[in-house]
Amino acid sequence: MNNFSFYNPTKILFGEGQIAKISAEIPANARVMLAYGGGSIKKNGVYQQIHDAIGEQIVCEFEGIEANPEYETLCRAADAVTANNVDFILAAGGGSVIDGVKFIAAAAHYEGDRWDILTKGGKVVKSAVAFGSVLTLPATGSEMNSGSVVTRSEYKAKLPFGSPLVYPQFSVLDPTTTYTLPMRQVINGVIDPFTHVMEQYLTYPAGGALQDRLAEGILQTLIDIGPEAIAQPENYEVRANVMWCATMALNGLIGVGVPQDWSTHMIGHELTALYGLDHAQTLAVVLPANLRVRKADKMAKLVQFAERVWHIQEGTDAEKAEAGIAKTEEFFRNLGAGTRIEDYDLDASIIDVVIKQLEAHGMVKLGEHQDVTPEVSRNILNAALRSGNPA
Prior knowledge:
By secondary structure, this protein is of the alpha/beta class. It has helices at about 40-45, 45-55, 70-85, 95-105, 115-120, 185-200, 210-230, 235-250, 265-275, 280-295, 300-310, 315-335, 350-360, 375-385, and strands spanning about 10-15, 30-35, 60-65, 90-95, 130-135, 145-150, 155-160, 170-175.
């Protein structure tokens, strides 16, 4: 196991009715901005619950943070933070809203070109406005980590940044807020954390025995309850477990001391920025192809994954590895997600465009070995192109 430093200061308030307790988590004299997306929180009761809890402290609201939060939108919100002397932001929504608020919190204090925050991966962030979150769409894990992804459509760019200064101070996770989610978002909310785990787990053996078992536990739980989340949209225990899986998948715990990949995400970000696919849709397309193209380098962990997660015991190592990938692909498809580029009415003509964008954004040495070059990314996209086993 590699040396590591682990820090996560986010307090979690989990369960039905926890929104009412946020007044105890926000300083009594704080001037609060409430930031949210398209207004679904006004339909599902979350907006009213927040106002009941801290309404007198809310000095302004910012509505309209996109599903892939836009740089220009977030800059306007950061300006509003300054103009209204806001010293605490409350994000209410899914991971995109929370990601957006992380950027807003950093940008409001940043005196240079705010684009630097993204192009330099957050290294220029020296301070940020305090914030908390009320999660209504479990998927990204943004409610308990210090990472964010922001889109700038004019550049066709979707870039990540991170800083220990943008951890939420607290996050409310009330499973009942997810009952009214559209089915597409429920599907995304299973695939996204599944792939988050895979990016940290499916690399090469590094002696992280506990990290492996924790990762496998999250994967198996998602496999067990993913279909139930779709079939039983108001089953509290199912929704609670999906929500907690999504948080645990990316709060840093399973990734300490072990190598991490993230090439599936970087390729997927380009598909979202260029063609508007949901983040989780891109992951369902790219992950199986990525595992097949890089099967030899990942063989040991692929076999472990097949044996422990999918209970595949028969066959050679190569056969087990392929069976594990096929089971994963089947799982995604059975949930209702496309796993091929052609499933989204796209064809081979997009591959050159995606590769050019990866190169433009410096994504030329990806993966746990930094050996996912543009040519390897091209092979992955070719493997993800159309139906059928490309192996």
